[in-house]
Amino acid sequence: MTIDPSTEIAAAFGTHRAEWASTDAGEFFVAPPYQGALLHPSRPCFLIGGRGTGKTTALQHLASQGQQTEHLAIYIRLNKNQVELFTDIPSDLHSKCFGHFLNLLICIELLRGHSRRSARPLSADLFRRLQTLFSLPDTGSSATQLHDALIDSLDKMEVAANNSDLHKIAYSPFEKPITLLASELSKLSEPERSVWVCLDEWENLTEAQQTVANGLIKQSENPIAYKIGVRTGGIKTAVTRRDGDRLQHPADYERIEIMETNFEDFAEEVANRRLKTLAQTGWTVESELRKLLPLLPLREELETAAAKNVAGWREELAGCPDVDAMVIPTRYLALMAYWRDASGEDLSSLAKDYERRPTEWKNRLGTYMFPVIMWLSRGRQGIRIRKHYTGCDTFLAMANGNIRFFLQLVNESLLENSRDPEFQTRVLEEVPARRQTIAARRVGKYRIASMDDVSRRDIPVRRLALVIGRVLMESSRNPAGKTPDSVYFTLSGKPEDREEAISLLREGVQHQFFSVELQNKLTSPKEFPDDAYRLHPIMSAFFEISPARKRGRKFDAKTLVRATRDPKGALRQLLNAPPSAPPPELVLDQLSFFDDILDTSE
Amino acid sequence: MLHGTSLLEEAKSTSYSPLREFRFPRGELLVTSPRSARCYIKLGVPAADIVAVCDIDHRGGKFKATRQGTTWNATVRSGDIASELRIQQAPPTIDISSLPVSFWGPVAAKLSSDGEQSWAGLYIRRAAYSRRGRTRPPGSHQRAIGGIFPLPGLARFGGTRSHAKTLLIVSLGFDGSRSAYVKAEYNFATRLAALLSSPGYKPNYTQEAAIRNGDYINHVSSRGAVWLSRPDSPFDTARQLHRIIRKECADYTYIAPLGTRPAALGAILYAERHRRSCEIVYDHPPSLLEPWASAQELVRYEF
Questions:
Q1: Are residues B69 and B96 in the same domain?
Q2: I want to staple B256 with a disulfide (CB 3.0 to 4.6 A). Which of A43, A78, A231, B170 is the partner?
């Protein structure tokens, strides 16, 4: 059977989630930079990151590794469909129910993990005590029988929950059976081994459930250690069930923020490992991703974009006696023309200034190269690519710590290249700048269009993202009176409006439409800095804005909130268009795809 | 254990088109919403034979029922659904179009698993789906739907245990964001499958659903397959689910019935019969559709 080469590429790079690559997870696995902290034998830890940052991969790998090493590790996903069931019961019953549920889940998985890797029998005393704690009938003396009896208990709990009879079942004391079983399992090997319980998707728990589960972490001690995977913002409380007792960092647990670890090297290593896998299957491929995705330098791009206009600028300067226009490089001429548009100064005086202060102009060029390229594309109707998005470093910046986005960018680039009529089967050659850009733009479009990670309830957030993207796109092309190349924004306006806008933006951050950073500069001596938001850089190519961390600006919070209800009106306001002006063409070009989202005419 | 195909053997369906051909069987009780009750009365259903259900608690399963001027409170989470609905004496017909899935899903599952009483499902097939019906009301950014939580009385704990191979099957509807949402929440499934209604009620419906669910179908293409089923047949849905699960050899299956109501009925009944290895995943969207707005046909499924 012939396999389509693009299918092979997609198999290597398109499998962005560890959960999907059941057989290849080990082959593709690259130890993340925080692996050392995660592997601490007795220290609980919270692994915190957005979607796609590799939490599940790391925890699943830990659990699978635990099958082979001196540790016993289990992995449990806290599914919404299950934990949601406990949200509707009276609070006095809730903690008992949920505690019993956790006891059952963890003990079932521990016994299962034990059965897989060891034939050593458990003590009769353990059976007796677990039977008592779980109110089980005599289960005999095999781990399998005990495992089955616990599953029966879970099934009974399921029936009770479905029939509103949870008050009728016998509850096990919270955490005791887990400690008992973990201690016994630990002692079965010499030296005693650690028992790691990996609980993933902690954010699915309600505040009350986290309060119960926090108790597990607070009270855990050798040999048991909890390794928790949680989405950024998913920790709802640090309180435990004991009055006033809270989980405290660093006393009680290690906190690993994935975004603060060395993402770039890790991501590149992951991609290179996948290239190696392709090479092993007979592909001719570069061993390094950087060689496959060459960077088109901004300077080169600027000179190409300015080439058509350079003769005109030189002609303008020909009459200026103090300036030799022929020796001024194209890129500086382009910058002067841009500056003239922004400040109103004439070209000859800017050229003279350039000759007087070359260092200042060099710095200025470094800062303004991106907006100048965008400005040069103005009015060129039908132009397909105004700005290129190329190179490994650009893709890393666009991924912003999300390994899944990074692999998606690489995958789309390679697939785009394979669509070339001259594509040689099973040979991966470097991807031209144009194709990299088309791929990057497509990934950005997917981000909004596919609504990956979001539901229809997030239409307002997507409207907000589209409006802000459009404003930034416009600003980057038009230097006059705007802050070009600004990607970060803070909020101005009344506290209540800011609060509402922040709640929207936070929701957007959770779903990776936006990202957030604490402002590093005080806005005034009396004022604490606000969080600075930006569109998630994965959408940079789509909106044709800079993926780099650039300057900030302020948006009126009330207008942003308005964008969720009346995107066109809000856009008019943000672009400072007079009320009498026709509605702004929000749906120009690629944005026309999102008519459905923007349409409020119901 | 019964499998999907047996549903086909046990049941039959009858179509009434035009609507005036509808004949409600004597001695049966029709369980519907108060609003739809008026439409059924116009079609000749005796008012005395109607149990009108309202004030449904989508999460907790409580509801209020009325028949012949008598109103009582009940819950779908009871072990004896027939007495909750007071339908012990007469076979019920459950209106699956006018009532929310969070009500009729558990009722159908319990009536089906009891097996003591025959019952029927009644589906109002529409002539068209308006664009407006699929979008949420404009206004604040407050969440309009509850998200994923179990249908009352149909929660499963099996999904929390570790399974080597899990499968997510989504029965696709017109709203692509729903399949994307479910896929995002159940991204851990090792395999994906899509159940697409074909032929649609109209020639373009299948294509429309495929386009709107492009994101999900793209993912399916790398980790599973797209299957076709009839949009108006719960039996066909059950049969296809059985085939998919058998082919994928999944240890545990999550079924998201986001397509037509008959497809959802088939999925719920299938999951109920395979409760140890199947689970329904439902996203509880707001019900904005008015089933009688462009009603074209009534279809009755007997169990």
A1: yes
A2: B170
